[in-house]
Amino acid sequence: MIPETPLVPSAAQRVAIPRRYLMCPPDHFAVTYSINPWMDPEEPVDASLAARQWEALRDAYLDLGHQVDSIKPIEGLPDMVFAANGATVVGGKVLGAAFRNDERKAEGPAYMEWFRKNGFPQIHDPQFINEGEGDFLYAGDWILAGHGFRSDPNAHLEAQEFFGMPVIGLRLVDPRYYHLDTALAVLDKDTVAYFPEAFSPGSQAVLRTLYPDAVIATAEDAAAFGLNAVSDGLHVLLPQAATGLAAQLAERGYEPIGMDLSELLKAGGSVKCCTLELRG
Ligand code: ARG
Predict the structure, then answer these.
(1) Does the model's pTM come out above 0.90?
(2) Catalytic positions, please?
């Protein structure tokens, strides 16, 4: 008798694909304003702990064999550490970011400047507000795109034309999950993990259609920012407090790696927010 193929791949069948990431050291990181419900300027941030936590994330990528480039942080731009928001890069093409909040607007040109100087000739200056990979998540055959709090849905059409890829708009409805990458993580080209309640009923239906076998996160794991994760196809780096999600990922044959980014979380960011993937 031929043994049945297991439906869930084991770790042995999942493959890590080497990645190239861009990160911004948290030299000027602080919480001096509040543009999302996680940010409380009254609550102290331990800057040296933030630096150690960020370095541990960078080192984890390097240990896994990934390449990490870095952009020089600019004084007065405390959220610049959240490199994911700096652009969206697919097939070497760079869609620049244009931020919703005045406090972050200067980050857009700063990131575009890095791309100009680092060998990315195809850079598109954005016409509509989009906060980079905060709201655009490349998912293999299409790009998932969030709107509702930050990115303008017109930016979805702009991205679709620029990249020549289908862009699927998803409406975010919970202010705690103001960017798509706080409510959904792309694990590989076939699978995502997400927290359904962060999305409008119509967008939940879209996600069920596209991903009938998705990993569904609990409210607790979502609140621990567990979905702000980075996957290389095998290893999934995620906030260590999201233990339930880590267990679900392990059951599916991924290797979860818990990271402590408590200080960055005070600004409403974690693993994914600190990481911009540079797709060649
Ligand atoms: N304080 C930043 C903001 O509210 C956090 C950005 C987090 N980045 C992300 N990719 N979700 O804009």
Answers:
(1) yes
(2) 179, 273
**Probe residue for ligand 1, chosen from 85, 178, 225, 272 as the CB with the greatest number of ligand atoms within 8 Å:** 85
- Rounded distance from Cα 179 to ligand 1 centre (Å): 7
Residue 3: inside a domain = no
Q: What is the DSSP string of 16-57?
A: ----EEEE---TT----S-SSTT--TTS---HHHHHHHHHHH
Tell me how far the alpha carbon of residue 204 lies from the centroid of ligand 1, in angstroms: 23
Of the listed ranges 8-22, 61-75, 92-106, the one predicted with least confidence: 8-22
Q: In ligand 1, which atom is closest to the CA atom of 268? A: 5
For residue 41, the domain's CATH number is: 3.75.10.10
Structural domain includes residue 11 = no
Q: What is the pLDDT of residue 150?
A: 97
ipTM exceeding cut-off 0.90 for this assembly: yes
Alpha-carbon distances of 122 from 61, 162, 186, rounded to whole Å? 26, 10, 25
Q: How confident is the model at residue 42 (pLDDT cuts 50, 70, 90)?
A: very high
